Amino acid sequence: MQTQNLETEVLVALRRIVQAIDQHSSRLGKDFGLTTPQLLVLQTVTNTKEQPIRAISAEVNLSQATVTSIVDRLERRGLLERQRSGIDRRQVFLVITEAGKDLLSKAPKPLQENFLHRFEGLREWEQHQVVFVLKQVAEMMGARHIDAAPLLDTGDVTRGHQRLETQPDSEPAVPNDNR
To answer: What is the pLDDT of residue 91?
Structure first.
């Protein structure tokens, strides 16, 4: 009987984690028209000066193609602008607009920021224990092969050897090799 209770507790805890991520993502989308990757790109552009897309993509741990797609959408919404360098006209940098700053000031922090703040408050041995257990859970769920960015959001998904990228703007998943 004890084992069944533990099994139930584990499944309930996993479901709560999934629901917390879904609720945060849904609120961000409904209330602000943003996805977590879009929010991270906006924040990164705000916090950096004259960085090209490749530097932004490295900072947010997303592919350059994904970040370019995100930037295109944010630019169409008037939240970001591309600007050419005054020194080297071949270089293009991203600048947040006033509308982008306004939206960013109202938007909630990404879910992982709150999590990481609490995680950093744990003792080192507790942090190692959390990492160990979560890696075991991922393994038990058959998720070892999934290539995931450190975002608490739905994003890049891997199935077998074929990497699928869900566009962070609710577009259907498309295999990379068919683009």
So the answer is: 77
